[in-house]
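Provenance

Sequences were taken from public entries as deposited. Structures were produced by running a predictor on each sequence independently, with no templates supplied. The record for Integral membrane protein from Streptomyces violascens is shown for reference.
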Amino acid sequence: MRQLMLLRIRLPGTEPAVAAVAGVCLLLALLLGLTPVLTALAAHEGMTLVPSALGAPFALPSLRAVPLGSTGWPHLLCEDFAAAVLVTAAALRMRRHLRRRPEAPRLRRLLAGWTALIAAGGASGAWRGLVAARMVDAGPAGWLAYGVAGAAFGAAWGAALGWLTALAALAGRERAVRAARD
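Predicted structure for Integral membrane protein:
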């Protein structure tokens, strides 16, 4: 009995949908950090590399333990920070939605999960764009252009992969609706 109680411990105020959306974002960052996944994506979907050739960050941020190729440790730490921004921004966006509309219908909750990854991708992309501007010693216009391009392409990747967080946003909906009715 005591072991079952230990498995049900959650942080106070953490809704299941928030944890699910944050978990999906963390899983995406971990998957994009795997070299075989990046290699397969580049080999089979080559057009996804075009924005990267223009200086925009590729995909969503990846979470890795060691640098990729010739990138150094500062770049790795910036990517890992961008992954933390991705997870945090998505969780905060989903939490805000659940606090404001606990009885939202399924479609609205799906859209909230989708937009959570769009907003998080934009926020982490803006950071990654600013890091890229710093690495190439861009001027003030370059900082603005890299930041905007990073945010735009991060949001585009969030829109493309947002269906994953949209499905995760449905976690615990029935329990939340019952609790709000009681």
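The chain has a mean pLDDT of 86.
Residues 106-135 form the longest helix (30 residues).
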